[in-house]
Amino acid sequence: MADTINLFVNGVEVEVEAGKNLIDAIGAVGIEIPHLCYHPALGADGNCRMCLVGIEDGRPPLVPACKTPAQAGMKVLLDAAHIKKIQRDVMELELINHPTDCPICDQAGECKLQDYYMTYGRPESRMTVPQVQKSKKLDFGCGVVHDQERCVTCGRCVRFCREITKTGELGIINRTDAARVNIFPGRPLNNRYALNVVDLCPVGAMTSRDFRFKQRVWFLKKAPGICHGCAKGCNITIEHNREKYQDDLIYRFRPRLNLQVNGYFMCDAGRLSYRQENEGRLLEARLNSQIRPLEDVLAAYNQEIERAEKIAILLSPNCSLEQMVAVKALATKLQASLSGFSAGYIQQGDGDGFLIEDDKSANRAGLTLLGIDCTQEHFEKAVQETQLLINFNNDLSRSYAEHELKKLLKDTKVIFATSHDDSLATMADIAIPVAASSEYAGSLINCNNILQTFTGAVSKNHKPADIGELAAKLGSPLQNRAEQFAELRIYLSVLKDFEADTVPAEGLNLNDSEAANVTA
Amino acid sequence: MSDRSQLISTGKPFQYDQERDAEFERLIKRYPTRESMILPSLWLIQEQEGWISQEAIAYVADRIGTFASKVYEAVTFYTMYQLHPMGRHHICVCRTLSCWLRGKQEIIDYLKDEIGIIPGQIDEDGRFSLEEVECLGHCGTAPVVQVNGEFHEDMNVDKLKALLATLK
């Protein structure tokens, strides 16, 4: 716990963290100071004037809370009549030229302007002159659509592009009531984090072309998840909904605050990777390209296991630690050679040192931790020596061209436990559907050696088993997640203090623990 | 305030002429950061071309090494920068208090009714363009008219007639 100080809010003493501004310090103990332009990642700008508060120590009557550091003994005044009048007046000012098109606005339901209007005043419009008209549905590039009329010119998007991505595509053009956010003609948004401006926008001015008009936000169910798009493991909120008579679908990923991993943001590719969870899924088990009940397919699997003298098992680097130990136990039982070969998941030079990593797999560190051989030689040798390959959701088409793969596997029967109905599933002799990453709970170790857990968010109609459950069905001695987690303690002694559901939300930094031996 | 966000593209790349190029290099040494050069470099464009095009804004942004959006902000913030072609002679009439009280409207009306130019526009043969501007700082000798940057004080319609006759 950081140092704390005591100060007074409306005469009541509260204990807050030292070294923060008033919005963050007082906000952390549950007292809201309304603000539009301030964002902890972008710093205080002080332009919106919504956070004006009184400090009873002889300074000017009102100061912006975002620019005022919390100090011991400070007497902060939030509920005086003159402060409430300011908040009401700012709301009235912001709404003079606001189109108030909430019924067709995607932000409705999570809009600061709506919330503050209801909380701080509900001013009636006194305007008798026509509203200033500006441009709507401007295409800013990177899937960002802008509505200048809804904008409150807080400048968060402008500051994000200048301070975080350092690409500076956006600016506030003109002055006074003609001011508006725009791109320079011919130089649209062109960075890999552009969609964060949609989250940053406190109102509905920035919308995502991908999400526009798809779903009202109050229908979305939110669950904490981890992005599986690359080795960074950005924390996300999975926002999904099952519409009547439909399947449970994800509508968007949004970044979730974790200062140890991704901060407030995530990359656009990761954000849009939710589509893969929805689309192209393998729904039913297949035996020699024929759809068959899972029991029949498992019976065929058992015959194959009996018949094969030697078996090779391949794991995906996206599997959770629990799935990996379950499959490893299965491999030991079947005396199979286990590989984690997945060179194709690495896109050399694609990382940017911020939130995008070269390695497009979520848990390669897990493979290393469990001592699973990931070399190409080992994998190819194992395949050549055996007649049966059980592949747990490893997308080999990333590592091999189609003709190479056909050549490699021409004398090998392939059992493919897969979340997606891709070309590999078509080639496989047995294809068994498994859950995608948003549908099961598990743990991952990211590129910075931070162990994080996530829970299952989505519940599909076809209810695919996750790889851990499937491994148990196929004969793995580890029957459930608790047993798998217990097995993990052999490799990570730091886990002795935790259960699967008590790992801290911000993750366990394995670099801090002496048991860390992951990056061997 | 009107919207100034619509830039005009010439379709041709912009470049400083030799004289302005040298001036740019001379001025940039004065400032602690290259970004401080945004306003002076816009003046140089206006001096050279009479107005500031989209290409010219992109040119100075790249030359200074700053975001085009920042130069775009500055050029639309300050009304002294002209974002469309001007007449051969650009007339600014002050419209702030002193000039207003001492008859700037008669001057505007004369220009509109007799010469046929409206504030914010160019006349048909491209000879004059007219703009109403905020205080030019010559309140003691109001009303004041600025033609091509030169001040003409204590103006009235007769003096304006004589002045316009000298401008071809």
Describe this structure in words.
The complex is a heterodimer of chains A (520) and B (168). Chain A is α+β, with helices and mostly antiparallel strands and 520 residues long. Chain A folds into four domains: 76 residues, Ubiquitin-like (UB roll) (Roll); 107 residues, Alpha-Beta Plaits (2-Layer Sandwich), CATH 3.30.70; 62 residues, N-terminal domain of TfIIb (Single Sheet), CATH 2.20.25; 224 residues, Rossmann fold. In chain A, the strands form six sheets. In chain A, strands 15-14-20-19-18-16-17 form a seven-stranded mixed sheet, with helices on both faces. In chain A, strands 2-1-5-3-4 form a five-stranded mixed sheet, covered by helices on one side. Chain A has a three-stranded antiparallel sheet with strand order 6-7-10. In chain A, a hairpin with a 4-residue loop joins β21 and β22. In chain A, α9 packs across α15. The radius of gyration of chain A is 27 Å and the shape is elongated. Chain B is of the alpha+beta class and 168 residues long. Chain B folds into two domains: 60 residues, Arc Repressor Mutant, subunit A, CATH 1.10.10; 77 residues, Glutaredoxin (3-Layer(aba) Sandwich), CATH 3.40.30. Chain B is built from seven helices and four strands. In chain B, a hairpin with a 2-residue loop joins β3 and β4. In chain B, α2 runs antiparallel to α3. Chain B is elongated. Chain B starts with 17 loop residues before the first helix and ends with a helix. In chain B, 25% of the residues are buried. The model of chain B has no long low-confidence stretch (mean pLDDT 93). Classes of the chains: A alpha+beta (520), B alpha+beta (168). Chains A and B meet through α4, β8 and β9 of A and α3 and α4 of B.
